[in-house]
Amino acid sequence: MRVAVTGSAGGVGRVLCPALADAGFDVLGLDLSLSTTLRDDGRTEQRVIDLLDRVAVFDALAGIDAVVHMANHPNSYAARPPTRVYTDNVTTNTNVFEAALAHGCNKLVFFSSIQAQGSTRMIGDDPLGPSHIPYLPMDGNTPAYPTNYYGLSKVVGEQLLEMHCRLNPELAGVVVRLPYIGGEPGRPMERKLDEVRRRGWQKFFSADEGFAYIPPADVASLVLALLRGMTPGFDRVLAAVNDNQFSLPAERVAADYFAGVEVRQDLSGRFTLIDNAPITRRYGWEPTPVQRPAPVPG
Ligand SMILES: NC(=O)c1ccc[n+]([C@@H]2O[C@H](COP(=O)([O-])OP(=O)(O)OC[C@H]3O[C@@H](n4cnc5c(N)ncnc54)[C@H](O)[C@@H]3O)[C@@H](O)[C@H]2O)c1
């Protein structure tokens, strides 16, 4: 199977492309620049392209069986003015989906963001205010609630893919909402709240996101599971590792940052407010278990 990966030179692309090649896929990496760290493995071709160029995108996606579409401005500060984050992302997404479909490609994976669900209530806010998240743990059915141009661009991308799935019964389309991408597989992140406050980073941590994260290697294993398991129709998933950036018990994050929100599952013993069970059920994927030091007896 020949898979186009847009954003192949980016943080996730540089991990995902080799993982796909190792799994036997032929990979076409598309980006504004070539990645010097992608090895020449005989299965990965890289091409420089601006995905805002509709004609170039149609040309590049001929003969592709599946597209993993990641190339976007990856946050609301990534372009100025912020409206450009919105207009560029929407144009890129429109071009990629249209061109893939025109060439008969019937597997599309779109990288969305947890910011599609809202990114307000920064941890420095006083008062923090009530959460708009309707229930915990969050999952792919958590309602869209964009609060910046980036989040809005992701919601529009999600709806665009859903529309194409509605109109094309043979198309399998999966939206992956991702939290902060970082960390090492299996190792707790253990940021310190007091250090974040000391450095003045409070404005970067939205309580709405539950401080969730996922390492790039886990994103790669998730995409592999999706490509192998996706079936015609539309699906949307939200994925994270069983940890949060502050390594706080999920019960404590819920109590401190989501007062009054309905809790639908027993959170005891958990470290994430994201429910991965639907992905495990549908695609057999589980994140790398996070190893924690055993509690000291006594
Ligand atoms: N990094 C995170 O914490 C995070 C969290 C949630 C979701 N996401 C989403 O995951 C995806 C990948 O994120 P990342 O961290 O690898 O981002 P990144 O910025 O490292 O990589 C994105 C790549 O897309 C390319 N790109 C952007 N516009 C392009 C265009 N017009 N034509 C061709 N290439 C273009 C860039 O050159 C870059 O290499 C993005 O869609 C992002 O929105 C990222």
Describe this structure in words.
The structure is a single chain. The chain has 298 residues and is α/β, with parallel strands linked by helices. The chain has one domain: Rossmann fold, CATH 3.40.50. The protein has eight helices and eleven strands. The strands form three sheets. The chain has a seven-stranded parallel β-sheet, sandwiched between helices. A two-stranded parallel sheet has the order 6-11. The chain has a two-stranded parallel sheet with strand order 8-9. Helix 2 (54-60) packs across helix 3 (82-102) and helix 3 (82-102) runs parallel beside helix 4. The model has no long low-confidence stretch (mean pLDDT 96). The structure holds nicotinamide-adenine-dinucleotide (NAD).
Describe the secondary-structure layout:
Blueprint: E1 2-6, H1 13-22, E2 26-31, E3 44-48, H2 54-60, E4 66-69, H3 82-102, E5 107-113, E6 135-136, H4 149-167, E7 172-178, E8 180-181, H5 193-198, E9 213-214, H6 216-229, E10 233-238, H7 250-257, E11 262-263, H8 277-283
Parallel strand pairs: 1-2, 1-4, 2-3, 4-5, 5-7, 6-11, 7-10, 8-9
Helix pairs in contact: 1-6, 2-3, 3-4
The chain binds nicotinamide-adenine-dinucleotide (NAD).
Residues 7, 9-13, 31-32, 49-52, 70-72, 74, 92, 111, 113, 178, 180-181 line the site of nicotinamide-adenine-dinucleotide (NAD).
